[in-house]
Amino acid sequence: MRIDLHTHSSISDGTDSPAELVRHAAALGLDVVALTDHDSLAGLSAARMEARALRDAVNLAAGDSTDHLVGDSTDQLVMPRPISVLGGVELSTELEGRSVHLLGLGVRDEPGPLDDAMRSIRESRDGRVGKMAAALTALGMPVEAAEIYIQAEDATTVGRPHVADVMVAKGYVSDRREAFDKWLYDDGPAYVPHLRCPLLKGIELIHQAGGVALIAHPWGRSARDVLTKAMLADLVLQRGLDGFEVDHRDHDATDRAELHALAVRVGAIGTGSSDYHGSGKIKHDLGCNTTTVASLDEVLARIARRGGVGLG
Q1: Apex CA 4: angle with CA 28 and CA 213, to 5°?
Q2: Which residues constitute the domain of residue 286?
Q3: Strand, helix or coil at 162?
Q4: Is residue 31 scored above 70 in pLDDT?
Q5: Is the pLDDT of residue 74 over 90?
């Protein structure tokens, strides 16, 4: 099985719609894909519906190689392939003042404390859009808040990648990476912070919603100096963290070996994923890193024990 447990759609800062993402994943031979948009579960219904449609198409196409071809996200015609979707979210949290991205897999999409926290974070993100536009304008790169919202289209979570896309469209930078490297990085010239949930609270909220809490790319971003081996071990052994990503494009071979060894030592779930954003993030192609069947089985077992939502 090929399993990718961290992807993004146009509901947050990806460029594929939820349905397009699922079709693309199926066309690439993935068996399971988790949709984990930033601070939102709004794309899960469409993703699951597409997965069901693809499975139905497989049943219809059994024994028939011509009548039931489907289009993937590049509009190429391929035989339908069964795929399952695991719902989730990438929750904005913080530890010791540093941003930590926390994956919540299998959480229930319902009113409650997690939903309240996500809504507050999204509202805070919205509140900073005008401030970032003003900061860029003051830096000699005129941007209107309305342009950012137009760029975001149907996204429920508006963030820095959408600001970066406007900067690209206006010719200020060549791509999202340059926008972040020069202007939008944490504490950068055009950076404006938004509300984040305390990490320990985020773990609690995900568990209350039936999910599994995994730290995304722990050694790939600005939180590496606080997410030490000792801290990660404490979070797993004493604070309820279920695990963390091991195989990720932001981790080199040494990082992966050390994180894998740590996961084995403390009994954490170690996962692998693409962190796919469509054309919004280069070198993060779907399935470029994958999760083992054993790790998925443990994720699903914990979701079932907590009353969360499994594969759909």
Answers
A1: 165
A2: 3-115+195-306
A3: helix
A4: yes
A5: no
